[in-house]
Design a protein that fits this description.
Elements (H helix, E strand, L loop, with lengths): L15 H10 L3 H14 L3 E2 L49 E3 L3 H9 L6 H12 L11 H10 L7 H11 L12 H9 L6 H12 L1 H5 L3 H8 L3 H12 L18 E3 L3 E6 L2 E5 L9 E2 L1 H10 L5 H41 L1 H6 L10 H8 L3 H8 L3 E4 L2 E4 L7 E3 L5 E3 H14 L8 H10 L6 H10 L5 H4 L3
Parallel strand pairs: 4-7
Antiparallel strand pairs: 1-6, 2-3, 4-5, 7-8, 9-10
Helix pairs in contact: 1-13, 3-4, 4-6, 7-8, 8-11, 12-13, 13-15, 15-16
């Protein structure tokens, strides 16, 4: 049996201005400037250089266009297309800060210096793309051969992949392309000057790796016929090796090749925090007189061609209006959000002491600003602030929290710092177990469970107690 009925639903449709603003909020400073340049190229109604019209001998400033003369039912209000949020400087300067070169990009660059044909280069590049962030190849060779065939259309075999992998394993950073920790350390130690200590370390890693990871040092000493001091000297060489040659990508920024332009600058002046948004080369956007004249001339015309031209110009003017207003809203949104973060983390921003960093999630700032959590997330993404104690991604200031014994909430970053201090201060001959670390943290006033200690220890790349044991 069919039933008919009416159902009333309330839906929200984003306006062109809202869509434009959302897109611009996500952009960091450099990309915003590029986006504005692109808009200037694509929208002939926008004009950047206001001086060019005066240099033709005219003394009058370019006419600001009012659309009130454009008599149509869907006419839009007058609007001044002019952005002045970033100060009066025509070409203000900004500082750039380098982020280290992309790990993959560095390897591909080194690959380019090898004498390989096109086929070999493609296979090697695919292997590089298959490496994990820490520089290891954790995929088996057969799977790589299959993937090369089915995903890249490159026919190869296990022998060729292994041969090219050995080429990659000669690249910097030393140890890259290893398939396990033992191979990673051996790749690094082979590049060291072969002193007696290095030779002993090589034997330990090559022949007694399982005993070494289990910290059965006396067994190794007995089997190798070396003294305890020689074992200590060999271990001193091993512990200096890098178990993660690719480097870990932390949660403060994505490890890609880029130039960072801080979106905010925070200074401490006379004991007070001052937030500014760096002024940069955003062009002043004005209506191009030529297109304004077309619109005004065609406003009351009945000629079809002129009407079509006026319609075209009106669309471009609409687009320009939304674009400029979106830039202004982006500026205000970013400034309000960053100020709320500074207010929330005031004590931390005064001195940069991590112990003063309070637990803070996106919801906290959303409540302070009145913006949606999604808006705060867009502001935080890919944005940086230059402070008097360093350059930081906005993501750095957000962390969950736990309560201490006084019932006060402390950030996970503070807890991790305290845990690292406990491990650093331990007797390496008798390293602290996770249960003992719980007791140590409790004595410092932090209420943490054993599983929490294990989780933070892993995140800090701190091995288990038996793996931290030293002679």
């Amino acid at each position: 049996m069919l039933k008919q009925g009416l159902e009333l639903k309330q839906t929200q449709k984003l306006s062109p201005l809202q869509i434009q603003t959302i897109k611009l909020i996500e952009l960091p400073t450099q990309e915003l400037e590029q986006r504005i340049r692109k808009e200037l190229e694509e929208n002939p109604v926008l004009d950047e250089d206001i001086k060019s019209e005066r240099e033709d001998g005219e003394d009058e400033p370019p006419r600001e266009v009012s659309l009130s003369d454009y008599k149509e039912d869907d006419s839009i209000p007058s609007y001044k297309l002019h952005v002045n949020n970033y100060g009066k400087d025509e070409r203000p300067q900004y500082n750039t800060f380098s982020v280290k070169e992309s790990f993959t990009q560095s390897l591909l660059e080194q690959l380019g210096f090898r004498n390989l044909d096109e086929h070999q280069y493609q296979v090697a590049a695919f292997i590089i793309g298959s490496l994990d962030d820490d520089g290891y190849l954790r995929r088996d060779i057969d799977s790589l051969v299959d993937d090369l065939a089915f995903r890249a259309g490159i026919e190869t075999d296990e022998q060729e992949v292994l041969s090219l992998l050995s080429v990659i394993q000669e690249f910097e950073p030393s140890g890259v392309g290893a398939r396990d920790l033992r191979e990673c350390l051996l790749l690094q130690i082979r590049n060291l000057r072969q002193t007696p200590d290095v030779v002993n370390a090589t034997v330990v890693l090559r022949d007694y790796f399982n005993e070494f990871t289990a910290r059965h040092f006396q067994k190794i000493i007995s089997k190798m016929g070396i003294t305890e001091q020689q074992m200590k000297d060999a271990m001193a060489k091993i512990v200096k090796l890098n178990p993660a040659p690719g480097g870990q990508i932390d949660d403060t920024y994505s490890d890609q090749a880029q130039q960072i332009v801080p979106d905010f600058i925070l200074t401490l002046e006379d004991g007070k925090l001052k937030l500014t948004m760096p002024r940069f080369s955003i062009p002043e956007l004005r209506v191009n007189r030529k297109y304004a004249d077309i619109l005004l001339e065609a406003a009351n015309s009945s000629e079809r061609e002129k009407k079509e031209a006026a319609t075209f110009v009106k669309k471009k003017l609409d687009s320009a209006k939304w674009f400029v207003e979106a830039i202004k809203q982006r500026h205000n949104t970013l400034q309000s959000t960053m100020q709320a973060i500074i207010d929330y983390q005031h004590d931390y921003f005064m001195d940069g002491d991590e112990s003063h960093l309070k637990p803070m999630v996106l919801k906290d700032i959303a409540e302070k600003t009145g913006f949606d959590i999604s808006t705060i997330s867009r502001v935080v993404n890919s944005k940086y602030i230059e402070t008097h104690f360093g350059i930081y991604s906005l993501k750095y200031f957000f962390s969950e929290g736990l309560e201490n014994q006084d019932g006060e909430e402390v950030s996970t970053r503070e807890l991790k710092k305290a845990l690292q201090e406990c491990v650093d201060a331990e007797d390496k001959r008798k390293p602290l177990t996770d249960d003992q670390l719980v007791e140590q943290m409790n004595s410092r006033g932090y209420k943490v469970a054993r599983r929490t200690i294990a989780k933070y220890r892993d995140q800090l790349n701190i091995p288990k107690a038996r793996l931290r044991k030293e002679l």
